């Protein structure tokens, strides 16, 4: 996991609409960049809905919210529509962003070793520096962890 105080790695990816989203789009702004395993699964839905329900609070405090998973843009579109998510999701199908942010790797599930996404959130300041790194995400209360 990347540490607080380090420069956030540059990223560029496509959102659910095929638009390019880059770290530099958020220069001068605060960003909550969260990585999650899979659209429409229970934990990922709880996390996204908690962020959705508190989205106005994030905006009022000057934060943008952006999610990243390896799901396709079409999957992201369905997820956003189904749960009325007000923020964009990046389709990192080639794992470039996940790996740059150390949110992808070997993990053990049900006694089996596999590769997958580590549920991780980084809060990045206006200068592109990581000011918080959350590795033990409470999906139902994630906003409280961030703020």
How would you characterize this protein structure?
This protein is of the alpha/beta class and about 150 residues long. The protein has a single domain, classed as Glutaredoxin (3-Layer(aba) Sandwich), CATH 3.40.30. Helix content is about 25%, strand content about 30%. It contains five helices and nine strands. The strands form three sheets. Strands 5-4-3-8-9 form a five-stranded mixed β-sheet. The longest helix has 12 residues.
The total strand number stands at 9
Oligomer type: single chain
Computed structural class: alpha/beta
Q: What is Rg?
A: 14 Å
Backbone shape:
globular
Fraction of residues in helix? 25-40%
Question: What is the first-to-last residue Cα distance?
Answer: 20 Å
Q: Record the strand order, biggest sheet.
A: 5-4-3-8-9
Question: What's the CATH topology name?
Answer: Glutaredoxin
Q: What about the largest sheet?
A: 5 strands, mixed
Which blocks of ≥5 consecutive residues have pLDDT under 50? none
Strand content: 25-35%
Topology order in helix (H) and strand (E) letters: EEEHHEHEHEEEEH
Q: How many independent structural domains?
A: 1
CATH architecture: 3-Layer(aba) Sandwich
Q: Overall pLDDT, averaged?
A: 96
Task: Find the CATH superfamily.
Answer: Glutaredoxin
Give the count of helical stretches.
5
Highest CATH level, the class: Alpha Beta
Question: What keywords describe this structure?
Answer:
Glutaredoxin, two-stranded antiparallel sheet, 147 residues, 5 helices
């Amino acid at each position: 996991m990347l540490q607080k105080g380090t420069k956030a790695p540059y990223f560029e990816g496509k959102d659910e609409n095929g638009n390019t989203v880059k770290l530099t789009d958020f220069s001068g702004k605060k960003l909550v960049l969260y990585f999650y395993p899979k659209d429409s699964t229970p934990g990922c839905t709880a996390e996204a809905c908690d962020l959705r329900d508190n989205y106005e609070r994030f905006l009022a405090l000057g934060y943008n919210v952006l999610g990243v998973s390896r799901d396709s843009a079409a999957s992201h579109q369905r997820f956003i529509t189904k749960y009325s998510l007000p923020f964009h999701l990046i389709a990192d199908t080639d794992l470039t962003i996940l790996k740059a942010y150390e949110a992808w790797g070997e993990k053990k599930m049900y006694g089996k070793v596999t590769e997958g996404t580590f549920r991780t959130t980084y809060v990045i300041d206006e200068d592109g520096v990581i000011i918080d790194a959350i590795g033990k995400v409470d999906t139902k209360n994630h906003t409280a962890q961030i703020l």
